[in-house]
Amino acid sequence: MSGFTVQAFEKQLNNLNATQQSIQTLSLWLIHHRKFYQTIVNTWMKELKKVKSSRKLTFMYLANDVIQNSRKKGPEFAKEFKSILPKCFELLAKEVDTPTIFSLDRLLKIWEERNIYDKKLLSEFKAILHAKHKSAKQNSGINEIGASNTNKSEKNSSMRSAEELLMSKMGEEISKSVDMDKYEDIEPEKLIKTLRDLENNSASNDEETRKQIANFPAEIFDAEQFESVMGKDSIENWSKVLNEAQRILIQYNNRLACELENRKKLSSMLVYFIEGQRRSLTQKEKLFNEYREKLKKIRSVREELDSHLKNLPDLSQLPSVTPLPSPIDLFKKETN
């Protein structure tokens, strides 16, 4: 992996795009050079101020990838970014459009769910984001959503790619529709096993393969750079490099496709499981109502019985009467 210099980092930021591969590759490179974390964060902030508003969200997704994937090996990144994020969100609020604000809200929500930063701090970030954005819109009188069709198309395309990356990081690839006609009961044990298998064997968490991809020569991803280093003597060597890179990428893409299908199946299982719980709840509520009605009837009968018992005469208050003669007394009279 190439050495770190500010110039090299600035160049890579300039070439950064909103694709998952571009963001993750640069993220791995930065984590590898985490000893320069202060320079990295300061340079990132400096370049964030320079880039067009349509590219600022991509910079935020790069920061997100670095912060999350360096938590174990390089927690200093999260601490260093924490110091500049207030100014960062203030800058973003003034320059980006409303859809981008919503995307940033979603990013803050992920940080909250994953305990990246404490809730109080994230609430402050969100307040800065919305207060400054509202103020900027009022002062300028310009609705950024109504920009030219060309710029809007570019922003939406960039946002879609970045959103796809964010959703993949969350593991929230969800199928749009689930056929309830194929409903089946899902046991909790089966659901837990599927979740664990997906967590332990997912391609998106394969750091080793991601490092391999990050270590590919930068020239193979840039046609202009590739032509500049290409020569007659190096054709065979570059051919081997390209073939190996192609093999690894095909395998990794196949694994990602398989993971995507597994996530869709898991999504269906979750829908079925929730539906099963809903049906079970409905059935138990029905049973509860039935027994509640039975209890009401029992109480009503009990009240009637208590009332009836209260209306019975008190035997102790009845007048005394001569008891009937016993059989012995009758026989005595006949004998006499």
From TrEMBL:
GO annotation (BP), single: RNA polymerase II promoter clearance
Cellular location(s): Nucleus
Name the InterPro entries on file: CID_dom, ENTH_VHS, RPRD1A/B_C
A Pfam family it matches: CREPT
SUPFAM superfamilies with a match to the protein in the record: ENTH/VHS domain
- What family is reported? Belongs to the UPF0400 (RTT103) family.
Q: Name one GO molecular function term.
A: identical protein binding
Q: Which GO terms describe its cellular component?
A: nucleoplasm; transcription preinitiation complex
Q: Can the keyword Coiled coil be found in this entry's annotation?
A: yes
Residue ranges of the region described as Disordered:
139-161
- According to UniProt, the name of this protein is Regulation of nuclear pre-mRNA domain-containing protein 1B
Give the organism, scientific name.
Sarcoptes scabiei (Itch mite)
| Encoding gene per record | SSS_437g
